[in-house]
Design brief:
Largest interface: A-B, 59 and 37 residues
CATH superfamily of the largest domain in chain A: P-loop containing nucleotide triphosphate hydrolases
Strand order of the largest sheet of chain B: 1-4
Structural class of chain B: mainly alpha
Helix content of chain B: over 70%
Oligomer: heterodimer
CATH topology of the largest domain in chain A: Rossmann fold
Order of helices and strands of chain A: EEEHEEHEHHHEHEHEEHH
Radius of gyration of chain B: 22 Å
Mean pLDDT of chain A: 89
Structural class of chain A: alpha/beta
Number of domains of chain B: 1
Low-confidence stretches of chain A: none
Largest sheet of chain A: 6 strands, mixed
CATH class of the largest domain in chain A: Alpha Beta
Shape of chain B: globular
Strand content of chain B: under 5%
CATH architecture of chain B: Orthogonal Bundle
Number of domains of chain A: 2
Low-confidence stretches of chain B: 353-357
Distance between the termini of chain B: 22 Å
Shape of chain A: globular
Number of helices of chain B: 16
Distance between the termini of chain A: 38 Å
CATH class of chain B: Mainly Alpha
Helix content of chain A: 25-40%
């Protein structure tokens, strides 16, 4: 059964149609990769799913419920976790406190009921050594890890990752992918926007290609990457 | 998600320094509470001033330093609190001390429509908006003829003479009427100050306080993890208004004379308060405490120099903002690492702590 379903979702900023008739399902436990050139509407797609942008038309279903009109905070509470393309940590709070905020507010629980779990997530995401450090002092990799850890602390049912591997070195990227693989292996459903293709294909079971706000292909990564249309549009290869 | 169960995590906010400080602070409060029995009347009045300014400063610090609501209209709540107290005494024949509660309630009620309008504004526009509201309230109250209109009025002598507890103090300890009034208001100021600091500290250490800090750091990200930013800000705004209203009412029980210009003075109840918080250290509980002591010392030593006094205050404020933006307490804590009211949640206790990057 689909945990998240978009049906004919469209969004325009004036004359600019950033999302056009987007339709796809995400199965429970699935990892879906989203690719497309800059300006294809990938981040917009996330903002529509989380409710940070209202849709113009179409319908979004999450856990079998129509959430098209549900405000963003409530969608988070019902299990949509997201990371931001540019990390947005709570700079003056410690790494651990960053997670406690997400755990306590994202699940409407008292602090002491989520603190153990937050500590465990820090172990899992390799941040435990920085637990008591102020988030403003973290390196880029650590900030990206914190984005992931903080989203996980809200106990999401679907995790939306926005270019989390961008800007990292090869080694850092490998380490992060390993973490995401581990999270996914635990049964987490994931939608992941990424330009770093080898990172994406090592986790995603299906790829969705966006161009000018339209879905131009969705399916098995090999098939997608070998399709002529995708190679032309996305990879800029003349065929 | 399945993860290895680890039960040996501990989270702690208290430090050894803070525990020792808590003990010392308790002793200090007792010493202060006994001041009327060994200190002069003018010292009691000075302490009253310091304590009430501290309450106002803690309130403004919570607003601006934690909730990011830089208000320059707090005089609206001082003034409405004071006038509500006067109204309770003159129109409803209440005891001044009972009427103080009325001041807090009136200020909190005024804060509801104020928040409704000013929360639509951001940053500097919010600041100006709060000031405009305060001016509107001042002009409106100046029309209230029963409370003296634009020229103001005094508390009836009968009310101040029969104030609750006055007879007891006079009979038991032999205070004169006027001295006994000062003692009562001083004790109330002490209670209000201790309760305010305690409530603020408790709030900051609570889940709501953590949410507040998250909103301050990044409102967008806070919303995305389920923090209701608007709700937390509204709670802080209303509670600050309540405390400010109580302080305003108490200040005017002691002054016993009120006028719209004095009760709604932006200089006395907001500008000085901002100065106190800024030089002491915004965003800390210790800051306003240090700030109010420095402010009092400056006021005492410079009050003879007329407008030079304000120039020096302004200059000092600018110097601190440029060279020590986190105030005197910030300077101190950066060097020593000492925190008297720690709110950091420190995680410790896991044997695998060295793993990680």
């Amino acid at each position: 059964m689909a945990i998240l379903a978009l049906d004919n979702v469209s969004k325009a900023f004036g004359a600019l149609r950033v999302s056009q008739h987007i339709t796809f399902d995400l199965a429970e436990g699935e990892a879906l990769g989203v690719i497309g050139p800059n300006g294809a509407g990938k981040s917009t797609l996330f903002n529509l799913i989380t409710g940070n942008l209202p849709v113009d038309e179409g319908r979004i279903e999450f856990l079998g419920r129509d959430v098209t009109q549900v405000p963003p905070m409530e969608r988070c509470l019902s299990g949509l976790g997201r990371t931001f393309q540019i990390p947005q940590p709570f700079e003056k709070l410690t790494v651990f406190e960053n997670l406690v905020v997400a755990g306590a507010f994202g699940n409407r629980l008292p602090e002491n009921e989520v603190s153990d779990e937050c500590a465990d997530i820090l172990v899992e995401t390799g941040l435990i050594g920085k637990a008591n450090e102020v988030a403003g002092r973290l390196s880029l990799l650590e900030r990206k890890r914190l984005e992931l850890a903080r989203a996980m602390a809200t106990r999401p049912k679907v995790l939306l990752l926005d270019e989390i591997a961008g800007g990292l070195t090869e080694g850092e990227c490998h380490a992060l992918v390993a973490t995401i693989q581990k999270v996914h292996a635990g049964g987490m459903s994931i939608i992941w926007i990424e330009h770093v293709l080898h990172a994406l294909t090592s986790v995603a079971e299906r790829l969705l290609v966006l161009d000018f706000g339209k879905v131009i292909g969705i399916g098995d990564p090999d098939t997608i990457m070998n399709s002529q249309e995708v190679r032309e549009i996305y990879l800029g290869i003349d065929v | 998600m399945t993860m290895p169960a680890q039960t040996n995590w501990t989270v702690e906010t208290r430090t050894r320094t803070s525990t020792i400080f808590l003990g010392l602070a308790a002793v200090l409060v007792v010493v202060l509470a006994l001041a009327p029995f060994y200190a002069s009347r003018s010292l009691i009045q000075d302490l009253f001033f310091i304590l009430t300014m501290l309450v106002l400063a803690q309130g403004w610090n919570l607003l601006a330093g934690y909730a990011g609501l830089v208000s320059v209209g707090q005089q609206a709540f001082v003034g409405i609190g004071a006038y509500a107290m006067f109204g309770g005494v003159i129109l409803l024949d209440l005891d001044p001390l009972v009427s103080i509660a009325l001041g807090g309630i009136a200020a909190a009620l005024l804060a509801i429509p104020t928040a409704f309008f000013t929360f639509r504004l951001q940053g500097a526009y919010f600041a100006i908006g709060t000031w405009v509201v305060a001016e509107i309230v001042r002009l409106t109250v100046a029309q209230w003829k029963a409370l003296g209109g634009g020229t103001g009025t005094s508390l009836p002598r009968s009310a101040t003479r029969e104030m609750f507890g006055l007879e007891f103090l006079k009979d038991t300890f032999g205070f004169k009427t006027s001295a006994a009034t000062d003692v009562i208001t001083f004790w109330l100021a002490l209670v209000l100050a201790v309760v305010t600091v305690g409530v603020v500290y408790r709030l900051l250490r609570s889940r709501q306080g953590l949410g507040l800090a998250a909103v301050r750091d990044n409102q967008n990200a806070a919303r995305s993890v389920g923090v209701d930013a608007q709700r937390i800000k509204t709670i802080v705004y209303l509670s600050t208004a309540f405390i400010t209203g109580l302080a305003g009412a108490l200040i005017y029980v002691q002054k016993a004379r009120i006028s719209p210009d004095a009760a709604f003075s932006v200089l006395d109840w907001t500008a000085y308060v901002i100065f106190i918080v800024v030089i002491g250290g915004i965003g800390t509980i210790e800051g306003p405490i240090i700030g109010v002591l420095v402010f009092f010392a400056l006021q005492n030593s410079l009050s003879g120099y007329g407008s030079w006094y304000l120039l020096v205050l302004g200059l000092l404020g600018i110097v601190i903002m440029l060279f020590a933006p986190r105030g005197l307490w910030g300077l101190f804590t950066d060097r020593t690492g000492i925190e008297l009211f720690p709110i950091r949640r420190r995680l410790s206790g896991d044997p695998n702590e060295k793993s990680g990057g």
